[in-house]
Amino acid sequence: MNIVVLVKQVPDSGAERSLAGDGNTVDRTGGTNVINEMDEYAIEEALRLKDETGGQVTLLTVGPDHALESVRKALSMGPDAAVHVSDEAIAGSDALGTAKVLAAALGTLEYDLILSGAESTDGGVQVMPHMLAELLDIAALTGARKLTADGDGFLVERQTEDGYEVVRASGKAIVSVWDTINTPRYPSLKGIMAAKRKPVTAVTLAELGVPAGEVGAAGAATTVLSAEPRPVRGAGQRVEDTGDGGEKLVEYLAAEKFV
Amino acid sequence: MAEVFVVVDAQGDTVRKVTLEMLTMARALGEPSAIVLGAPGTAAPLVETLGQYGAQKVYTAEHADLADYLVAGKAEVLAGLVAEKSPAAVLLSSGQEGKEIAGRLAVKLGNGLLTDVSGLEADGTATQNVFAGSWIVKSQVTKGIPLVTVRPNSLTPEAAAATPEQVAVEVAVSDKAKKVAVVERVAEQKGSRPELTEASIVVSGGRGVGSSENFALVEELADLLGGAVGASRAATDAGFYPHKFQVGQTGSTVSPQLYIALGISGAIQHRAGMQTAKTIVAVNKDDEAPIFELADFGVVGDLFKVVPQAVEGIKQRR
Ligand SMILES: Cc1cc2nc3c(=O)[nH]c(=O)nc-3n(C[C@H](O)[C@H](O)[C@H](O)COP(=O)(O)OP(=O)(O)OC[C@H]3O[C@@H](n4cnc5c(N)ncnc54)[C@H](O)[C@@H]3O)c2cc1C
Ligand SMILES: Nc1ncnc2c1ncn2[C@@H]1O[C@H](COP(=O)(O)O)[C@@H](O)[C@H]1O
Fold first, then answer.
1. Whole-model pTM?
2. Does residue B235's CB lie within 6 angstroms of at least one atom of ligand 1?
3. Confidence of residue A21 (pLDDT cuts 50, 70, 90)
4. According to the 3-state scheme, what is the secondary structure of chain B?
5. Minimal C-alpha gap between A204 and chain B (Å)
6. Do B135 and A125 touch (CB under 8 A)?
């Protein structure tokens, strides 16, 4: 089975994150960029399926030049190759713009399955898999906590607001995974060495035939008017428990009318 | 006045609170029309409540295909309705399904999409919380109409009684939109606690709670306050509490009136899911735990001493 895994470089969610000087886009220049955490679970799932069925695992990313670093790191987990779409005209794309670029790139690749993270920690919009399914006219099975290749299709178990459900699609599909699906492997030293020699194909918008005006800040269908950091929450009252901490807590809750 | 579409999010016979918030929010832009998408019989028990919160119309798009196949069909019906009625805006809830329908609708209409919106002005300017609520952004859709998903607990729903006109929508789901079939749907016991994302009080436990048995203490406090129970990732990973109750970056985002963190250090990824809570209370034995940096009220102490005492104290006050 040939699998394409979508990986996105994001600012490390464990560090302070910021918007760029234009106030409009995520600041991606800071030193701490990583592969979106959920995407590692997608890679792990791809490698597991490859172990079962054979085939190729290819990473696909749309992002600036420095996304390459994160892609190399992801390759050290075991995928075979990567495709990196990078073009200045893509900067400032909204979800719709990114979806168009990803869909065009996917159109040039051979795959039976596309895997992605369920959401990215910078955008966190959870819409990419469905946008792609709509553009590519394939099935979308999202938020998988369990994935099984099932004859000519895929079976997914996903958590819902009311419990869980099992869903199935025949043919090609995009499956997005939640972080409950597996435990991603750590790259081995051998994997890290091998990653340096794995093919990474750089692709431009022109090569994909996507008009520059349809993507990037120019093509965006949304715009940011203003952005400001949430006012810092001042630390409030703090008491040391000297035997009456629970009482003090109740007094506070009562004063705030919660009890 | 222009129609504003509110796509109804309900759980069985109950309209979710976020839908009432959307009906309230929609009134700034025009006349709210509620849209019910689902199997035959879905709308009937919801109409009265929708009317109480100002729905002038209720479109009922009912067909077994909308329940038997995942969201593509709902997006298809909605796109048709948008084309026919030209609403001034479309509001969906920021849950999984709401976002998925919205994503598809954005592609179908070539329309911009704004997610996790907590406020909407008459001119379509939306307030969004990005980076897990650490930035507040005002944005607008520049292509098409305001298409937004609304974060639960963004505002207090205001009643505005109306007797909605019910309009049946003809549904014919195309084969294209029947790619993902539901094989099995398992409802887990809901219990009597409010839903995590909608609760106005959330009591969460972390690694400090120590075991799944000890979570009974977290539950006891939550039940006394009429709140929901949450957990940190350390607690769900350790199996103390089911994953679906995880609060944080890779769990639920909650925005309650009161959030109580018990034995939670307050890692940035946990804060991501709760820092927009109105009031934050923490109990932690480490006086340097970062959770105290944002707590309105903190008790430095052993939760196994503090919480039982608080539980007794609350009972006595009743
Ligand atoms: C990409 C990514 C995503 C993540 N997403 C999430 C997420 O969605 N949600 C989330 O919660 N975390 C998330 N995390 C994990 C996060 O970084 C922390 O590891 C986690 O929140 C820690 O949970 P905790 O506070 O319960 O545990 P700890 O950090 O171990 O803290 C336990 C606390 O309990 C206190 N304690 C112990 N015993 C007692 C006692 N008897 N009485 C009082 N206090 C006591 C200790 O002093 C300590 O402060 C994520 C991490 C990454 C890298
Ligand atoms: N620029 C991108 N390049 C590659 N994959 C992406 C990109 N943006 C989003 N994705 C994929 O889509 C998933 C969901 O992203 P999002 O819809 O942004 O929350 C991510 O986990 C990635 O797998």
1. 0.91
2. yes
3. low
4. CCEEEEECCEECCEECHHHHHHHHHHCCCCEEEEEEEECCCCCCCCHHHHHHCCCCEEEEEECHHHHHECCHHHHHHHHHHHHHHCCCEEEEECCHHHHHHHHHHHHHHCCCCEEEEEEECCCCCEEEEECCCCEEEEEEECCCCCEEEECCCCCCCCCCCCCCEEEEECCCCCHHHCCCEEEEEEECCCCCCCCCCCCCEEEEECHHHCCCCCHHHHHHHHHHHCCEEEECHHHHHCCCCCHHHEECCCCECCCCCEEEEECCCCCHHHHCCCCCCCEEEEEECCCCCHHHHCCCEEEECCHHHHHHHHHHHHHHHC
5. 22
6. no
Mean per-residue pLDDT for A15-28? 63
CB of residue B263 inside a 6 A radius of ligand 1? yes
Q: Is B176 on the interface with A (CB under 8 A)?
A: yes
| B134–A235 CB contact, under 8 Å | no
Host domain of residue A90? 2-214
User: Domain B3-178 classified CATH 3.40.50.1400?
Assistant: no
Question: Was B271 annotated as part of a binding site?
Answer: no
Residue B212 pLDDT:
98
Total of domains in chain A: 1
Q: Which fold has domain B196-316?
A: Rossmann fold (3.40.50)
Q: What is the CATH classification number for the domain harbouring A77? A: 3.40.50.620
Is B27 assigned to a binding site?
Answer: no
Average pLDDT, chain B: 95
Asked if A127's CB is within 8 angstroms of B100's CB, the reply is yes
Cα of B170 from ligand 2 centre, angstroms: 35
Tell me the pLDDT tens digit for each residue of B129-171. 887 777 889 999 999 999 999 999 999 999 999 999 999 999 9
| pLDDT reported for residue A76 | 97
Contact A228 B104 (CB under 8 A): no
Residues of A in contact with B103 (CB under 8 A): 95, 125-128, 130-131, 134
Per-residue pLDDT tens digits for A27-38:
666 558 899 999
Amino acid in position A135: L
Give the mean model confidence (pLDDT) for residues B290-309.
Answer: 97
CA of A119 from ligand 1 middle (Å) equals 21
- A85-144 confidence digits (pLDDT tens): 999 999 989 999 999 999 999 999 999 999 999 988 876 678 999 999 999 999 999 999
Ligand 1 geometric centre to CA of A236 (Å): 21
**Which of B71, B100, B123 to probe the A interface (max A CBs under 10 A)?**
B100
User: Do the domains B196-316 and B3-178 match in fold?
Assistant: yes
- Please give the pLDDT value at position A30: 55
pLDDT at A22 over 90: no
